[in-house]
């Protein structure tokens, strides 16, 4: 059946859904008892609204000797409950039904086995009146029965007497925790026939004062006497008005939702501004711990090292093989084609770098949790460190992945390398040619025709020119390699910072943001549930 909508704000259905969502979000963050209570309210509401909403369940609750059983009999018009004075006589709840057709499932859900049909009078048809055991009974089972039904009934009628209306047990255990249930509560000061008119007024005024202190200002307070019948017409009229509206069940559920939401709110909801954590410092600290500066420096040096080996003078470039490659020494691009092979050999972070990284992670959690209530602040701080064990491997993979491109060889290296071999070949040709001329001269054979370039023999041009050209090309190539290495190092540094930033975002900032979003959703759901 569709629930009644309040004049303003969300419907009861929406509030129940919001309360259940708030309980789900609070799981593991707030005390389990409060979360369980909120879920129980939602489940109980679903059960109650599936039963008869044409019946209003009102319960007479009170202490030993308050006369609630006598009042129960007076309202029913016949003796249904045993009446006692000095000791509890009601051990289990019993029900009086005014037109109880269709209320069977409701009473079964309430677990009230003793039921009495009462002739309908006035506008009471649909009323299910319960007489509860004494809430201060010496029998534990009696008290537990009261506690159980107080949470289930639609309307609570508290019956007190002039001697014990200020009893701390009643106010602290029941009335004060039910401060949000004023719309479904009535307080009856019974046995006023024992008081004078002045005394009765004084007691009623004091009772209203105590109820205000309990947060129940505005709750109807009636004076009555089950023995003389005084005040019974007023009480009957109030019950008729509540029964005729058929809304007490919804008002009770609404109050239950408000109470459960208020308890969750008190444990972990404050009006705070939740921001987004800044990851700049975290990225710097993670970069240092991942060895990014070392890798960037190695990229520049490795580029120059490999350029010299590829474009240097062929007679000397082989010496580069005896020098360690900076990137291969770090295990980066060590595959056949520069691909990633296992973990890198980047040194583990030093104690100082580890401390900086841990401090940066802790600062992210502290900054994000600064204005949050403690249960959620602790959850945010934990979220910041939830993936500590995965950080080292993730950072190493970023270094290996983002640095792999540094092993690529520019095309101009092959061109210059080929040019160097041509120049070297010219030098060798010049040397061989001169050697042949020397042998011919030594053997006193006739000299062959010798071409010249501006009177300089070609063999000499080839030998000296090739050597000079090779050295010059090697020097120019080294300068170009140095500039290219700086450029490639800057490119790799940018890629590494971005990669490290992504790791920090995924493993540190991401979990923190998720926890903050969870808190935002929790407060929004509570806001709807409290409406």
Helix content: 55-70%
Oligomer description: single chain
- Mean pLDDT over all positions: 84
Strand order of the largest sheet: 3-2-4-1-5-6-7
Number of helices: 18
Low-confidence stretches: 1-7, 335-342
Q: Could you tell me the radius of gyration in angstroms?
A: 45 Å
Strand tally, please?
9
Keywords: Membrane, Transmembrane, Transmembrane helix
Protein name: 50S ribosome-binding GTPase
Organism: Nonomuraea recticatena
InterPro entries: GTP-bd (IPR006073), GTPase_Era-like (IPR005662), P-loop_NTPase (IPR027417)
Could you characterize what this model shows?
- The protein is of the alpha/beta class and 531 residues long.
- It has helices spanning 12-26, 32-50, 68-76, 104-110, 140-150, 168-175, 197-213, 232-245, 248-268, 280-289, 292-311, 314-317, 326-329, 351-369, 374-384, 388-403, 411-442, 458-530, and strands spanning 56-62, 94-98, 114-118, 127-131, 155-160, 185-189, 221-223, 452-453, 456-457.
- Strands 3-2-4-1-5-6-7 form a 7-stranded mixed β-sheet, with helices on both faces. A two-stranded antiparallel sheet has the order 8-9.
- Strand 8 and strand 9 form a beta hairpin.
- The longest helix has 73 residues, at 458-530.
- Residues 1-7 and 335-342 have low confidence and may be disordered.
Looking at this protein, list some descriptive labels.
58% helix; two-stranded antiparallel sheet; 531 residues; 9 strands; seven-stranded mixed beta sheet; alpha/beta; disordered N terminus
């Amino acid at each position: 059946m569709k629930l009644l909508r309040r004049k303003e704000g969300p419907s009861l259905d929406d509030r129940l859904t919001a309360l259940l969502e708030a309980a789900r979000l609070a799981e593991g963050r707030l005390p389990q008892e409060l979360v369980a209570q909120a879920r129980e309210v939602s489940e109980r509401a679903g059960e109650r609204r599936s039963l008869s909403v044409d019946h209003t369940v009102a319960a007479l609750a009170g202490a030993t000797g308050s006369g609630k059983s006598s009042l129960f009999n007076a309202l029913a018009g016949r003796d249904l409950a045993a009446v006692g004075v000095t000791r509890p006589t009601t051990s289990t709840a019993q029900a009086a039904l005014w037109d109880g057709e269709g209320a069977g499932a409701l009473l079964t859900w309430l677990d009230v086995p003793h039921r009495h049909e009462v002739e309908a009078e006035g506008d009471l048809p649909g009323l299910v009146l319960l007489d509860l055991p004494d809430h201060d009974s010496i029998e534990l089972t009696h008290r537990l029965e009261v506690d159980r039904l107080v949470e289930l009934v639609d309307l609570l009628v508290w019956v007190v007497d002039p001697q014990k209306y200020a009893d701390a047990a009643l106010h602290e255990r029941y009335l004060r925790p039910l401060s949000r249930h004023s719309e479904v509560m009535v307080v009856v000061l019974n046995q006023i026939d024992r008081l004078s008119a002045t005394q009765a007024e004084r007691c009623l005024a004091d009772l209203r004062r105590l109820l205000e202190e309990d947060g129940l200002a505005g709750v109807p307070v009636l004076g009555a006497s089950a023995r003389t019948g005084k005040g019974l017409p007023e009480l009957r009229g109030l019950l008729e008005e509540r029964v005729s509206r058929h809304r007490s069940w919804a008002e009770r559920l609404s109050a239950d939702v408000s109470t459960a939401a208020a308890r969750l709110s008190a444990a972990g909801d404050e009006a705070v501004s939740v921001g987004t954590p800044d990851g700049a410092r975290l990225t710097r600290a993670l970069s240092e711990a991942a060895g990014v500066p070392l890798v960037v420096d190695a990229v520049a040096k490795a580029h120059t090292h490999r350029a010299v080996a590829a474009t240097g003078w062929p007679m000397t470039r082989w010496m580069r093989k005896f020098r360690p490659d900076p990137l291969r020494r770090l295990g980066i691009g060590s595959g056949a084609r520069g691909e990633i092979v296992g973990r890198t050999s980047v040194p583990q972070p030093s104690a100082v770098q580890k401390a900086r990284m841990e401090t940066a992670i802790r600062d992210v959690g502290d900054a994000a949790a600064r204005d949050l209530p403690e249960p959620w602040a602790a959850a945010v701080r934990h979220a910041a460190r939830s993936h500590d064990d995965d950080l080292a491997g993730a950072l190493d993979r970023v270094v290996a992945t983002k640095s792999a491109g540094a092993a690529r060889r520019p095309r101009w290296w092959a061109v210059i390398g080929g040019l160097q071999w041509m120049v070297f070949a010219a030098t060798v040709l010049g040397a061989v040619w001169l050697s042949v001329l020397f042998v011919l001269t030594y053997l006193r054979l006739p000299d062959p025709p010798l071409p010249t370039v501006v009177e300089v023999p070609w063999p000499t041009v080839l030998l000296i020119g090739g050597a000079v050209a090779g050295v010059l090309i090697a020097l120019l190539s080294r300068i170009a390699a140095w500039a290219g290495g700086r450029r490639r190092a800057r490119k790799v540094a940018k890629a590494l910072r971005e990669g490290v930033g992504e790791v920090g975002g995924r493993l540190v900032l991401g979990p923190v943001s998720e926890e903050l979003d969870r808190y935002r959703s929790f407060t929004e759901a509570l806001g709807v549930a409290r409406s």
